[in-house]
Specification:
Structural class: alpha+beta
Number of strands: 8
Helix content: 40-55%
Largest sheet: 4 strands, antiparallel
Order of helices and strands: HEEEEHHEEHHEEH
Bound molecules: zinc ion
Distance between the termini: 27 Å
Number of helices: 6
Strand content: 15-25%
Radius of gyration: 23 Å
């Protein structure tokens, strides 16, 4: 399965959960709708009501809400650990033994931050990290949320 398919499956599942956790809502009549058409005015131009949060068209806002509440954003410290794994040996500067990552952090913090960002970008390209509403999340966290929340459709 290629990365795009993997991602669309993930977002399809999130969309399904968003539908399961929300209700159709007719804004004109200000009532939640049973089925597809509003029982009062007959319109099928329904918004989605997420109990306790509000009413809005579409499911993107629901997905953002659910993920931000149930998954933790990526903590950048993991990138530092990965960089340390790449440079495990201490180096000698003059007569002092230093840890290369500690040294770079102090000597060139901008370069260090660029390396962290590049590492995160690489994981985004590999789809290990997924951005939702401007925040980075581990794919595995989102996947876990999906496994815990996706109900099988009742046929
Ligand atoms: Zn209505």
């Amino acid at each position: 399965m290629n990365i795009e398919n993997e991602n669309s499956e993930l977002f399809n599942n999130l969309e399904t959960i968003a539908y399961q956790k929300s209700k159709p809502f007719c804004y004109t009549c200000y009532i939640s709708v049973k089925g597809i058409h509003c029982q009062k005015c007959g319109s099928n131009d329904n918004m989605r009501l997420l109990e306790g949060y509000g009413v809005e068209y579409g499911t993107d806002w629901i997905i953002e809400q659910l993920i931000s509440e149930n998954c933790s954003p990526v903590d950048e410290d993991f990138a530092e650990e990965s960089l340390r794994d790449c440079y495990p040996e201490t180096v000698k500067v003059g007569w002092v033994e230093v840890d290369p990552i500690d040294a770079i952090k102090r000597l060139d913090p901008i370069s260090f931050q660029i390396a962290v960002n590049e590492h995160i970008d690489m994981l985004k390209e590999d789809n290990e990290i997924i951005e939702i509403a401007g925040e980075d999340y581990w794919r595995s966290d989102i996947q876990k949320y999906i496994c815990d929340n996706l109900k099988e459709e009742v046929v």
